[in-house]
Amino acid sequence: MQPRVAVLEPDTRKRRVLLEDAADARYLATGHLAFLRHGTLMLVPFDADKLQTTGEAFPVVENVAQALNTLQWGSDTAAGQFSISASGSLIFAPGGIVPDAENSLVWVDHKGNAEPITHLKAPFFAPRLAPNGQRIAYRTMGKRHQVWVYDLNRDTNTNLTSEGLANWVTWNPDSKRLVFGWSKAGVSNLYWQAVDKSSPIEPLTSRSEYNQFAGSWSPDGEMLAFVQWPREISSEILIINVRDRTVTPFLNSPSDERFPEFSPDGRWIAYGSNESGRREVYVKSFSGSGEKYQVSHEGGQEPLWSRNGKQLYYRRLSDAGAYDLTQVWVVDVQVEPAFSMSKARLLFEQSGSGLSDPIRGWDISLDGTRFLMVKVGETKPQPVTEMILVQNWFEELKRLVLAK
């Protein structure tokens, strides 16, 4: 998800987005909005009466400290360390955004013991194991949000996307294609592409004004469950039939619903909902009929089925409250003669793995004995050791505008 700059119209209470991939905007007496984009201070002409931009944005100062790329929900605010006085002086802390984390791909057994998969370090995020077990697809979570594929046999990394912004990725059941949310700028819709790049990236869903995130496939590869996230209301789970591209809602509910996961037999979907006032994991028949079953009772997200469908795992934050301390829970599942499950039990607690939202960010090995996870490296911002003051900066701004 990218930060956006928007205006809220007082009379109608409607929000209107002005700038994509932008944050921390301030209005200047020169008739501009100042804002940050990836650590660069930008300006755009702005009509304060009509509340709209009137020209193209342009950069003015690079390397301004910005709380972006921290990988921490509480601190990734995109706030910038700059201020501009009414008299036209600029002061800022240099530093840019936080450097990319050096994360690791790891196998984690059912006791929480982690084993590195590769020596490679990268801003790995939300890895998915191919159904044939040969490769791992993931998105980068850093300065660039792209889709990559790691080959387990060859120990090589291949960049699938090289432009735009990609979000969560999932494999087709045949291991030949990947589906992911993607955009060149602004809202991300669903696209897919052959892993060997034998065909170009192609849209899967019709153009939507809402962000979309690929969840999971039905076993036959005909249905894809995904999350659509309108800007001003709760997210919802939708199902697309890839043959005729029809899209239908899985649940018609006012609640916020995420993390859709088809069961291995395709009869059930596990998902997360906040209908109780707290995010919990539920299971409901894919047909939509019958009752729903609550899996977690003390918070839960990111449901993950075992390969045989006899267990359902999920993650949650530890009761200790630390962001990087997470727990893995499991329930045993029976679907015959009717759906039933055991009481949830804690498998292990670990630090440094983090959570993923609104799509799960972990997977399970083909034999079911290990989980595929990311061990998060440190993302420490550079300490502020100086502040830069530019007096009469508005005069410099005038020269920049004239030069455009």
Number of domains: 2
- Total number of strands: 35
CATH superfamily of the largest domain: TolB, C-terminal domain
Content of β-strand = over 45%
Radius of gyration: 23 Å
Helical content class:
under 10%
| CATH-scheme architecture of the largest domain | 6 Propeller
Mean pLDDT: 91
Notes on the structure:
The protein has one helix at 393-403, and strands at 4-9, 14-20, 23-28, 32-37, 40-47, 52-53, 58-61, 82-84, 90-92, 104-109, 114-116, 124-129, 135-140, 147-151, 156-159, 165-171, 177-183, 189-194, 202-203, 211-217, 223-229, 236-241, 247-249, 257-262, 268-273, 280-285, 293-294, 301-305, 311-317, 325-334, 340-341, 345-351, 363-364, 370-375, 388-390. The chain is mostly beta strands and 404 residues long. The protein has two domains: 4-98 and 382-403; 104-375, Neuraminidase (6 Propeller), CATH 2.120.10. The strands form nine sheets. Strands 3, 4, 5, 6 and 7 form a five-stranded antiparallel sheet that branches. The two termini are 31 Å apart.
Write the SSE topology.
Layout: E1 4-9, E2 14-20, E3 23-28, E4 32-37, E5 40-47, E6 52-53, E7 58-61, E8 82-84, E9 90-92, E10 104-109, E11 114-116, E12 124-129, E13 135-140, E14 147-151, E15 156-159, E16 165-171, E17 177-183, E18 189-194, E19 202-203, E20 211-217, E21 223-229, E22 236-241, E23 247-249, E24 257-262, E25 268-273, E26 280-285, E27 293-294, E28 301-305, E29 311-317, E30 325-334, E31 340-341, E32 345-351, E33 363-364, E34 370-375, E35 388-390, H1 393-403
Antiparallel strand pairs: 1-2, 3-4, 4-5, 5-6, 5-7, 8-9, 9-35, 10-11, 10-34, 12-13, 13-14, 14-15, 16-17, 17-18, 18-19, 20-21, 21-22, 22-23, 24-25, 25-26, 26-27, 28-29, 29-30, 30-31, 30-32, 33-34
